[in-house]
């Protein structure tokens, strides 16, 4: 499975009263599953860090922080982080795809 990220640039600012906007550029970037997984893990790590910083200065909600941690540590959706580890770090992935493995 290959993920694709599309980027569109338009000439007019949004929101606009026009029913359509003319494209000034269009870009399609192909992303491997491991690169997508790394991006998602980094994004979740940043969210957890921001919530931890809020909690450290007394602005955060402990229940929300605890739910975020539980959902990250015990993520059961699509097999969670254990499935990522099993797929990309165990077995023969490093031998069959050495260029992608280096980005892990």
Q: For the report, how would you describe the main beta sheet?
A: 2 strands, antiparallel
Order of helices and strands: EEHHHHH
How large is the count of helical segments? Answer: 5
Into which percentage range does the β-strand content fall?
Answer: 15-25%
Query: Span between N and C termini?
Result: 17 Å
Give me the side-by-side strand order of the main sheet. Answer: 1-2
Based on helices, strands and strand pairing, what is the structural class? alpha+beta
Radius of gyration: 19 Å
What are its keywords?
104 residues; two-stranded antiparallel sheet; 16% strand; flat
Please specify the SSE layout and strand pairing.
Layout (H helix, E strand, L loop, with lengths): L2 E8 L12 E9 L1 H24 L5 H12 L6 H9 L4 H4 L1 H5 L2
Antiparallel strand pairs: 1-2
Helix pairs in contact: 1-2
Describe this structure in words.
This protein is an alpha+beta fold. Helix content is 52%, strand content 16%. The protein is built from 5 helices and 2 strands. It has helices at residues 33-56, 62-73, 80-88, 93-96, 98-102, and strands spanning 3-10, 23-31. A two-stranded antiparallel sheet has the order 1-2. Helix 1 (33-56) runs antiparallel to helix 2 (62-73).
In short:
It contains 5 helices and 2 strands, in the order E-E-H-H-H-H-H.
């Amino acid at each position: 499975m290959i993920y694709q990220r599309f980027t569109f640039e338009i000439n007019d600012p949004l929101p606009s009263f026009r029913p359509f906007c003319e494209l000034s550029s269009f870009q399609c970037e192909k992303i491997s599953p491991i690169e997508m997984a790394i991006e998602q893990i980094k994004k979740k790590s940043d969210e957890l860090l921001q919530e931890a910083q809020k909690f450290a200065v007394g602005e955060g909600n402990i229940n929300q922080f605890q739910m975020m941690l539980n959902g990250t540590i015990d993520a059961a959706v699509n097999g969670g982080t254990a499935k990522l580890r099993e797929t990309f770090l165990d077995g023969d992935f490093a031998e069959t795809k050495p260029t992608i493995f280096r980005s892990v």
